[in-house]
Amino acid sequence: MATDQPAKLEVRSAGKRYNDFVALRDCTFDVGAKQIVSIVGPSGCGKTTLLWSMSGLHRLTEGEVRLDGRPITGPHPDIGLVFQEAN
After folding, report:
1. CA–CA gap between residue 30 and residue 12 (Å, rounded)
2. For the chain, where are the E strands, in sequence order?
3. What is the C-alpha to C-alpha distance for residues 87 and 14, in angstroms, rounded to an integer?
4. In the Cβ-directed half-sphere of 63, how many Cα atoms lie within 13 Å?
5. At 25, phi and psi to the nearest 5?
6. Whether this model's pTM surpasses 0.70
7. What is the mean pLDDT of the chain?
8. pLDDT(87) > 70
9. How confident is the model at residue 54, as a pLDDT?
């Protein structure tokens, strides 16, 4: 981030494994308050895994996600997620 403001959302070395399958590896970035971010990539690259982890619906196997400096360890009232299909 290019400001002196602390990050609203921090993703640090995020990784997720399902047994031998690596769904997400070493993902790190910050999102500032009122900043809009897109996550793009080919099918199967870990976008949905990352979003579910950022929303607290999946636990990471490596790294962490923080909102306002606090780790996201489960569903959070300040985080919303719109699913692609009805769930």
Report:
1. 8
2. 9-18, 21-31, 62-67, 70-71
3. 25
4. 20
5. -140, 125
6. yes
7. 91
8. no
9. 94
Looking at the predicted structure, is the pLDDT value of residue 59 above 80?
A: yes
Question: Is residue 2 over pLDDT 70?
Answer: no
> Count H helices, E strands: the chain?
1, 4
**Cβ atoms within 10 Å, residue 72:** 22
Q: To the nearest 10°, the Cα dihedral for 75, 36, 29, 43? A: 80
Q: Residue 86's pLDDT band (boundaries 50, 70, 90)?
A: confident
Residues 6 or more apart whose CB falls under 8 angstroms from that of 16 comprise: 22, 23, 24, 46, 49, 53, 58, 60, 61, 62
Looking at residue 73, what DSSP letter applies? -
How far, CA to CA in Å, does 23 sit from each of 1, 15, 87?
26, 7, 21
d(CA 45, CA 73): 23
Residue 22 confidence (pLDDT): 94
